[in-house]
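Aim 2, interim progress: modelling of the zinc ion-bound target.
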Amino acid sequence: MGASALRLERDIDRITAGWLADLATWTLDPDAGETGTCTLCLHYAERWQLDEVPHALLHLLTLPVEGAVVDYASESFGERRGAVSAGSLRNLASRQASLRVLAQHSAIAWALSAYVEPQIRRLAARLLEEIDAR
Ligand SMILES: [Zn+2]
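Predicted structure of the complex, ligand included:
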């Protein structure tokens, strides 16, 4: 493994740890509505087994991870001088990044159930009350 591959892992660890730390204070915006998930989040949600996470929250993780993946892929593409296609380097980097995130899966699942799921349950209960009140 090259130095830049190790740097990718370090970057992903730092991004994931920062996102986890922010989870404790993240608030669900009930007025934001569900605008649907972007293709980036669809791609990673499946790999990370995080399909249930609100898109606004998931996007805060997928965006910097994808940034690190693209940076790493273009850097190693330069190093290898086109011996491997840019697309396959990107896929490789994306898989490597996903493994790093998955290594944190139990910590992520814990934080989601502690901080995010109660908010979703409260919002769902409020929506049901509003429907009943009509
Ligand atoms: Zn997204």
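The chain has five helices and no strands. The chain has a mean pLDDT of 90.
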